[in-house]
Hints:
Blueprint: E1 6-12, E2 15-20, H1 21-42, H2 49-79, E3 84-90, E4 93-98, H3 105-134, H4 136-147, H5 157-176, H6 184-197, H7 200-227, H8 231-261, H9 266-269, E5 277-278, H10 283-294, E6 298-302, E7 308-313, H11 314-319, E8 341-343, H12 355-360, E9 362-366, E10 372-377, H13 378-390
Parallel strand pairs: 2-3, 5-6, 8-9
Antiparallel strand pairs: 1-2, 3-4, 6-7, 9-10
Amino acid sequence: xxxxxxxxxxxxxxxxxxxxxxxxxxxxxxxxxxxxxxxxxxxxxxxxxxxxxxxxxxxxxxxxxxxxxxxxxxxxxxxxxxxxxxxxxxxxxxxxxxxxxxxxxxxxxxxxxxxxxxxxxxxxxxxxxxxxxxxxxxxxxxxxxxxxxxxxxxxxxxxxxxxxxxxxxxxxxxxxxxxxxxxxxxxxxxxxxxxxxxxxxxxxxxxxxxxxxxxxxxxxxxxxxxxxxxxxxxxxxxxxxxxxxxxxxxxxxxxxxxxxxxxxxxxxxxxxxxxxxxxxxxxxxxxxxxxxxxxxxxxxxxxxxxxxxxxxxxxxxxxxxxxxxxxxxxxxxxxxxxxxxxxxxxxxxxxxxxxxxxxxxxxxxxxxxxxxxxxxxxxxxxxxxxxxxxxxx
Length: 393
């Protein structure tokens, strides 16, 4: 969905924040549009220093609010034990990449509603700032003009900036809360249906159908705007409609697939005898007895009670100086990321969107006490899906 490569900006609590190439296009368009609007409001040329500076500030503020929205989703997911691989900004906003789907309607609702809650807080804070600066009745008028993408020449540049940021976030909030899966409103609807029916697949199917309906409505509205002489808004809304309907269709297909998997668990398809490195052996022994012997790029590491400690990669072991390898324990090099393992009683369909499974090609399976009980590879998952789709109906 995000196209080609992306550029990493920074990390927030281990979450990679990146921009897709398409983000630069919309960032440029926002600056051009905003500079014209601020120029009209200030009675200056759009290329003058003040309107252009306010335009840059508005673009940064807009995408900053989008990032905060996605961080709301991310932190809510982390609280629920769901890993986040990255947040990417692109031409249509932002997306937080979760390592897996929520395992309960309560978790789904909490993660879905967190983003809109952050956006609502941003609108409230900006409205408070604008109200204090101009008076709440006056700012209410300015805010409503901004919602209609109009300006007031009597308004200062700062207040105009605050009003625009408040208005655009309010629009984003309302749009996001439409029950069009996979938008936030659609995910909230899925959580509520899931809670009511007790069946995630049924909830996803209903929410996906709602998403497809809204996608068609957006596309139709875009065509009407295009025919009425507003090509930019028409094309924009039409593209959003096609994206939503396509994503909803994909969710419906995945739901049909998971319904065929039924009650298959990770333990049913995993390799129950994985090769694991004891955490108390030296790096030197690990290299000689495991990496050089099996030629694998990584191994799970366990303690004396066979509890899973994490993964160790060959590169990490090779980085240890030779003079220190005999005295260094392999447990000191493990990556203990929670996203590297799953419970062996996890439903198999929960792995379909797992980013770490795609990245490493495998996940460790642990029992209720955290002991390593197996390893499930992406090939095993693929075979299970193939058996499910080609087996008897």
